[in-house]
Amino acid sequence: MPLVVLDPTYSEETADWPLASAPRWLAGRTVGLLDNGKKNSDRLLDFMGELLLREYGVGRVVRARKGDPSRPASAEVMAIFRECDALFTGVGD
Amino acid sequence: MEARKPLLRSPTYRVADAFDANELFFRRGWTDGLPIIPPTEPAVASFLEEVGIAPDEIIGVEPVRGRRVTAEKAAINAVMAGCRPEYFPVVVAAIRAMCHPEFNLHGCTISTGGSAILLIVNGPVRRRLGMNATHNVMGNGNRANATIGRAVRLIIINVLGGVPGDLDRSTLGHPGKFTFCIAEDEEDSPWLPLAQERGIPPGGSAVTAFACVSPHQVMNEWTRDPRELLDTYVAAMRANMLTYSIYPGNYVLVIPKQHREVFVAAGWQKSHIREYVFERARVRRGEWRRVGKASLVGEENADRECCALSSPDDLLVVAAGGPAGGFGAVIPPWFGNKSMAVTKPIPA
Questions:
Q1: Which of B194, B254, B263, B302 has the fewest CB atoms within 10 Å of its CB?
Q2: ipTM (interface predicted TM)
Q3: CATH 3.30.2320 domain extents, chain B
Q4: Does residue A16 sit within a domain?
Q5: From B12, B104, B335, residue closest to A4, measured CB to CB
Q6: What are the two backbone dihedrals, phi and then psi, of residue B56, each rounded to the nearest 5 degrees?
């Protein structure tokens, strides 16, 4: 017998969390690097920061570290990135 | 896809039969790998009527990504899991517990560590639903236990995006990620039920959610001394601290009838168990040297004493298991105190 079944998945994601448009260039821009607190994440982001300055002409790199990789960054930490044009966050391990 | 129904807002799909529905759901990655009950509108509506809440009512918000679990989506997944409508209030309460910030739902469901969510049900609802608290309590065989736990996992997959290899990055996973729900054997225990110890009034029903790693089964049938019995449980906790995670958090002890008789004969309440375990479930950080973790031990911290529990109250003692056999269980936390157990009432 034919059935009509309901979709079990979340369907409001796009409306709730629209993606920011990606910057079209990075030269001269301020880029944030958010260390998620995992072991070696600082090394990964050190490398990325150097690469962004050297290869992509980024004007300034701003760094901060989350206290706990399993929880969101605090408002204080996010405030550090207020002037940034783009933000990278990285894992380590 | 058909037009939206007036009552329920989820998109609908027309399928030939239940087998076809299963193929659709498997193809779209909407199951846990097992077949599901097709979530039809009448079935979902009957679940919502059971709890008396509107389909668009938000029963929980996952605090990190802000995803909202609506009653409608929870009910769809509970139908899929094989729940009966009368089980749904337990599922709703479990979601409310899991969405409490202390539970850290995002962390414990995406972690590389293999974490499952254990649900512990207390109160009259257990008997009303025919839940199992005795033989094979952590295993198969009871519809309510099995499908309530499964419903929670399906909600994590379908509503919160906890799909293995996608948002769920667990290295090994956990067998309890299919389902992990037990009831406490309140009828055959003189102790205060877990939920009442955690603030639920006597006569009330509640569910406690706990993000945990694998249960460690312990065996001791050769003593009548409560201290010796607990030394066996403590040894398993210490082993977990050395081989898995040294950080303090909640631990669950599942204590079967045969062990409970030893404690009761000695006049021990759950509080005595908690105090004893709190004092003894400790290791020195330097002990990591003999389990292959020497690189994490420095001269300055080798003598530091690490406790499994931050306080005696962090030990959750649950009376459950079959009437014979000296087999209990230690269920360690996912990762120290990054997720704490949360208890929520189940409306009568």
A1: B302
A2: 0.93
A3: 214-332
A4: no
A5: B12
A6: -90, 5
